[in-house]
Amino acid sequence: MFIFKALMNTIFLTNLLKKFFIALIPLFITFIALHFYGFVRTPFFYPLLIIFFFIYIKSEFKNSVLLSITLLVATLIANLAMGILKIEDRMYYRPHEKLTIYNHEMELKSYKKNMDIIFQMPFGDISAVGHIKDIEIEPREIRFKTDSFGFRNNNNYNGEKYVIVGDSFIAANGTNQDHIITSQLKNTWNIDTYSLGFAGGIPEYVKYVLYLQKKTGSDFKVLLFFFEGNDFVESISKRQMVIKKPIIKAYYDWVKAFFEETIIYRYTYSLITMLTKKPQSSEVLIVKGHRIGEFSDYIQATKRQSYRIPDRALKMLYLIHDRIDHIFFIPTKYRVYFPFIENRNIEELPNRQWEETQRIAKLLNVGCTDLTEPLRKESERLLKEDKFTFWKDDSHWNGYGIAVAAKAVNDHINKLK
Q1: What's CA 399's distance to the chain center, in Å?
Q2: Taking Cα atoms as reference points, which of 311, 252, 261 lies closest to residue 109?
Q3: Could you tell me the sign of the dihedral formed by the alpha carbons of 115, 250, 215, 109, in that order?
Q4: What global pTM score does this model have?
């Protein structure tokens, strides 16, 4: 009797293990299918995968495989249909999100290569993610053009001596192609420059420069732009400092990016983010009767009483210090318009980020320029015409603001000459 029970238990365990391993086949197919959806980055993903696993254990093998394949095929068909219906064109309020992809060669995100699109922007980023309803909205049509490296330029890199490096201010999010800094330098000052502008921070800026250096071997000089609002971070992780990822990690990021760049993933991720993510805090500033917006984080950064850049950020900058020619400091919209804000609650602002920029420049043995005063003077002049150097519904500068930066670059280059 004992032997019989032991035999039955062994058979039962064997059958259970067999079902377990057989269920892994449809589970793997399901695992692939679910990666096409935005909730793969939420806590719901693994519980859902476990539910499918138990369904497959309970079901016959052919039914489990049929269900998993059906889910995968239906997902691919849905993604194709969304492309045909051009759902993606209605998903985004600006080209930045639509054109952002993972650059496997650079191992960072950049824009899709060799793109030239016309985009109708209904509003700026503060209106989109700051969720302020009572600021002035500025709809605009913009042209957005990228080069063969995936950066926003009118032409491919052609040995330009000066390369402008910075975040979305240099990429000129929300602004037409004619008004980006490289366009203005060429059209107004007849200076050829190249832009490595994309949303990021100091670690990314260094990697952009090293990437261009590796691709071209050119002896270019870097004009580095720091934005007060988000470039002066509190910390930088070891992961951010990695220049060349291990092969397995690089391959994993490439595979992950394949799913994240599908239309169905972007669409479902946008929906989930909209439903679960808290709105980014922003505030209304009254300037000459105009209601303009600014992100609260940028306002708090402007009001900092103390700041010191992380040592890791300095270590990253030292990797390219021989190429850095000059550093430009971009103030926040709040700092630029501070003297003109009605009913402000303080009389003056600290200037810790600019002071830290000066210290960094001294350590790197390069010069630096604060764009605050020229932007304020131009803003004061334009206010007489009810015009602004920043978009009223956006945290970024517009063509007028970029023109101030272009003149500062021209002045610096002419001084060198």
Answers
A1: 21
A2: 261
A3: positive
A4: 0.90
